[in-house]
Amino acid sequence: MVRWLSWLSHLSNTQKVPGSSPSRISIHDVRWDCAGGRLEWPTLLSTTSMRPFLLLVTGILAVLGPSTGRRVAEREFAALSGPSLSTLAASSDPSTNLDAANPSSHLSNILIPRAPDTSNNTLVRNYLVATLRALDWHVEEDSFIDNTPYGPKNFTNVIATKDPDAPHRVALAAHFDSKFFAASPLNQFVGATDSAAPCALMLDLAEFLNPLLNARAAVADDPFSDYEIDAEVADTTLQLIFFDGEEAFKDWTDTDSIYGARHLATKWQNTYLPPHPKRRLLASHGAHTPLSTLDHLILLDLLGAPRPRVRSYFPDTAWLFDALVSAERRLGDAGLLMPSTDGNSEGEKGLKGAGEGAGHEGSFFAQRTGHEGTLGYIGDDHVPFLRAGVSILHVIAEPFPHVWHSLADDATALDLPTLRRWNLILRVFFAEYLGLRPDELSTREAEPTPSEGAEAAAVRRSASEL
Ligand SMILES: [Zn+2]
């Protein structure tokens, strides 16, 4: 059932035509977006199917270029050495903070019902903020009110930036709200894969990378340093975005979904950064906005269940997708990946442990076809940024985990070896993106990584206290 041809409305630069049957639309519908260089197409999905699929459309060409964002050239990542890979897997346990059985893990602190504008949502937000402030990152709480089917609601995005003055940023994002359900027992929904686990991954990654980023800054300031790093890479910082209000309160529509992402993309398009010496060499025209200094938005969603399959959606970030695949392959070859719970012994080399339903050869990633430009994409928090011209890498399991939007999306839906593998893949990927070589940097500036802030630990509350 085709609702609308929204790409036509993009071409005429008008608002999209509202759908006639929103109840038939999946929360993550498949679209083509012309404004971001892709065409948008409506979904055929029903909420009962809970399974998105991609529409294959051939012969469609992108007709509009990006409006705001900066195109970032593809570049070679300097591959981490074997010792760096081993350091990265061993220096802080990549499972600890993703273990729901550990009551002080990041995951346990997030895994409560946390729909927007509730006290539990605030508790989780406070935990995110406290954890990142403990690392001395710049943390912004972006609060606003928007209308929902249940009236006006308060929302707050959390944006944490290692170096807010850096001329380049790569943003890693996920949504921290859980889906609102009005009645018991569904109002106990905790969204383990959706997206508590991705948020916990992000916090652990920040703690892991923080001392390396400090060491990178120290060598960059040292005129006698022999640490080799590309100047633009050295000027790139890491930003974490935790979106509020990703979920629809009722059925997914343009106005009942991705509240936080829509707000932030609009705000960042219309905010002008004050002049700063570090940004003076940026090649963009005119004044800088937070969007014009954002090189890539990497969005995580629906991760943590075993045997995910993640595909590449956008041609301009296919090289980043390939870097994820490469990271996973090298970790497997080095024997650093644990098996999934469904078999294989620890330390075995190769990509074992992701069986039927996963990507090629046990990988989490679907083999690229080379025809990604003709694939649709899944509606999610990246869409307003995509439309604003930001380069997007969408890391989402598709098909969705079978527990999607059910009470079964709790701790039992998560597979710890799978989460550990995600954590290591992200460590390798961001170390290489940011020019961090753990074996060299870890000897230059030792700084303890706080496993948890005392302040952060104090904000946890169990679901039973609701
Ligand atoms: Zn969801």
Evaluate the radius of gyration. 21 Å
Termini, distance in Å? 40 Å
Q: Into how many domains do the coordinates divide?
A: 1
Number of helices: 12
What is the makeup of the main sheet? Answer: 6 strands, mixed
Instruction: Please give the CATH class.
Output: Alpha Beta
- What is the fold named in CATH at topology level? Aminopeptidase
Helix fraction, binned, reads 25-40%
Please identify, by name, the CATH architecture: 3-Layer(aba) Sandwich
Mean pLDDT: 79
- Shape by Cα distribution: globular
Assembly status = single chain
Physical arrangement of strands within the biggest beta sheet: 2-3-5-4-6-8
Low-confidence stretches: 1-69, 342-348, 353-359, 446-466
Strand content: 5-15%
**Element order: H for helix, E for strand:** HEHHHEEEHHEHEHEHEHHH
Structural class: alpha/beta
Q: Could you tell me which ligands this complex binds, including any ions or cofactors?
A: zinc ion
Tell me the total number of β-strands. 8
CATH superfamily annotation: Zn peptidases
Give the helix/strand layout.
Blueprint: H1 6-11, E1 30-31, H2 82-90, H3 106-110, H4 119-133, E2 138-148, E3 151-161, E4 168-175, H5 192-220, H6 231-234, E5 236-243, H7 259-269, E6 294-301, H8 318-333, E7 377-378, H9 383-387, E8 392-396, H10 416-433, H11 438-441, H12 454-457
Parallel strand pairs: 4-5, 4-6, 6-8
Antiparallel strand pairs: 1-7, 2-3, 3-5
Helix pairs in contact: 5-10, 8-10
The protein binds zinc ion.
Zinc ion is lined by residues 27, 179, 194, 247, 405.
